C-alpha cells in the first residue's frame, strides 16, 4: 500500500497514466506466479493482485475483452488492509479486526445456497462446505443447500459461457423450493444432524482447506438474490 502513495486507486488500463508507484505495483503484479497466464496486460495485473478468478477457457473472448477494457478499468486498493485482516484471521472480521459478524447468525434468517467450482481456483469448495454448515446449524428453519459444479473455478460460475446450463439451474431451483416452503420455520432434523456431523467434505479432493471469506461473500450475494426474488 505504501508504494501507491496518496492515490489508492490503481488505473488498470495499459494506456492509462499513473504515478511511478502505480506502475511499479502493476509491474510487480505481472511478475507474480499464478495458475494461468494471459496475453492481456490488464488481465495479468488483476490476476496478479487477486489471483486468477476464472478459468479462461470458461469465458468467451468477448466477455474477457469487456472485463478488461470496460468493466474493471480502475481498482480501489483501500479495501486491501481490511481483506488482509480477514485472511489473516481465517474468518470474516470488520475493518478493525473484530469478530462482529459471525457472532450474530440471528441476523441471517434467510435461505441460502452455496455454489463452489469443482476445479479449484482462488478458493476451495471447502469454503462453501463450512458456510453451509454454519447456516444449517444456526438457521435450521430455512433451506440451505450447496452445489459443487465440475469444471468451474470461481467467478466463471456466474460469467461462464455455460453458466446458464450448469450453474443457474441450481439458483432457480433453490429459489423455487425456498418460495414453496414459505415461512415454515420448523427446524429440519436432517439439516441439524448434518450441521453437527463434522466428517470430511465429500468434495475434499477438489482442493485444500481455505479461508471462508469468499463463501460468505457468495452467501451475501445469494441473500441479495433471494431478497430480490422473494
Ligand atoms: Zn485473461
From TrEMBL:
The keyword Zinc does not apply. Keywords: FAD, Flavoprotein, Membrane, Oxidoreductase, Transmembrane, Transmembrane helix. It comes from the Eukaryota. InterPro entries: AB_hydrolase_fold, Cholesterol_Oxidase. The chain crosses the membrane at residues 209-229. Its cofactor is FAD. The keyword Membrane applies. GO terms for molecular function: oxidoreductase activity. This is Uncharacterized protein.
Amino acid at each position: 500500500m505504501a508504494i501507491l502513495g496518496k492515490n489508492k486507486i490503481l488505473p488498470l488500463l495499459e494506456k492509462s497514466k499513473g504515478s511511478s508507484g502505480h506502475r511499479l505495483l502493476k509491474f510487480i503484479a505481472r511478475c507474480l506466479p499464478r495458475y494461468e497466464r494471459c496475453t492481456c496486460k490488464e488481465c495479468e495485473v488483476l490476476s496478479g493482485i487477486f489471483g486468477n478468478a476464472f478459468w479462461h477457457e470458461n469465458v468467451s473472448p468477448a466477455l474477457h475483452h469487456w472485463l478488461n477494457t470496460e468493466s474493471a478499468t480502475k481498482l480501489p486498493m483501500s479495501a486491501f488492509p481490511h481483506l488482509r485482516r480477514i485472511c489473516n484471521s481465517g474468518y470474516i472480521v470488520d475493518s478493525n479486526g473484530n469478530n462482529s459478524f459471525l457472532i450474530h447468525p440471528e441476523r441471517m434468517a434467510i435461505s441460502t445456497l452455496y455454489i463452489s467450482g469443482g476445479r479449484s481456483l482462488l478458493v476451495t469448495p471447502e469454503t462453501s462446505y463450512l458456510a453451509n454448515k454454519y447456516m444449517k446449524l444456526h438457521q435450521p428453519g430455512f433451506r440451505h443447500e450447496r452445489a459443487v459444479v465440475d469444471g468451474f473455478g470461481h467467478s466463471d460460475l456466474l460469467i461462464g459461457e455455460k453458466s446458464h446450463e450448469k450453474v443457474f439451474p441450481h439458483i432457480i431451483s433453490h429459489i423455487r423450493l425456498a418460495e414453496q416452503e414459505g415461512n415454515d420455520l420448523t427446524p429440519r432434523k436432517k439439516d441439524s444432524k448434518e450441521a453437527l456431523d463434522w466428517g470430511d467434505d465429500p468434495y475434499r479432493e477438489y482442493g485444500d482447506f481455505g479461508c471462508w471469506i469468499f463463501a460468505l461473500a457468495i452467501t451475501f450475494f445469494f441473500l441479495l438474490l433471494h431478497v430480490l426474488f422473494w
